[in-house]
Design brief:
203 residues, alpha+beta, 25% helix, globular
């Protein structure tokens, strides 16, 4: 059987066992293109809020399932880089499919939105330059962080990575994960931000 061949490491995994009905409702609405009324508890909010969405895509990122959607009724976007809501499925308290069909947006392009820049949060795009040494240099050079990335080898033990990101918090946490094997070069304001965080952690 396959369970003798494959497995998963479950540290930090989200338990979706209580969300099967919500996931099935989302899939059904995605297939039939119907509006859903959801009650959602954001991580920064004390109380859940209820509103209607047009679900566009279910996707996973770092062992978490998300739904990318647009609020219903749709409103004109303020600018080209405005971000459609990304909702963590495990934070959806309830979901009910409504008898309201919607037309799939002709301008929606998941690959263009999410696989163009580093980060699931989509703020204004910016360029990042960082140096990696030791094991981190090997780890980073094995992967694609943004389609436009450039990797330059400094010596046998270090590389310079240039890429485009859209989320400052994610870049900071990602770099800190590498510890002393990573050094941010640009943008300058983020180097100060990281230094401040390290100083607070030392205290």
């Amino acid at each position: 059987t396959y369970d003798t061949l494959f497995s998963t490491i479950q540290n930090g995994l989200v338990d979706y066992s209580g969300h099967h009905d919500i996931i099935h409702t989302l899939i059904d609405a995605l297939k039939t293109r119907h509006v859903i009324s959801i009650t959602y508890r954001a991580i920064t909010e004390d109380q859940p809020k209820t509103y209607d969405i047009m679900p566009l895509k279910l996707f996973s990122h770092k062992d978490t399932i998300y739904v990318n959607a647009r609020k219903y009724p749709a409103s004109p976007k303020k600018h080209a880089d405005e971000f459609d809501p990304v909702l963590a499925v495990h934070r959806i308290v309830s979901a009910e499919k409504k008898d309201i069909p919607f037309e799939f947006p002709a301008d929606y392009d998941f690959e263009k939105i999410f696989n163009r820049h580093f980060g699931i949060i989509k703020d204004k795009a910016f360029k990042v330059t960082a140096e990696f040494t030791g094991w981190a240099a090997h780890y980073v050079s094995e992967r694609t962080w943004s389609p436009d990335q450039k990797i330059r080898r400094v010596d046998e033990n270090s590389i310079i990575l240039e890429f485009t990101a859209s989320s400052e918090p994610e870049v900071i946490s990602w770099l800190l994960w590498f510890g002393e094997e990573a050094r941010l070069i640009k943008p300058q304001h983020l180097t100060k931000n990281i230094a401040d965080r390290i100083a607070k952690m030392m205290k």
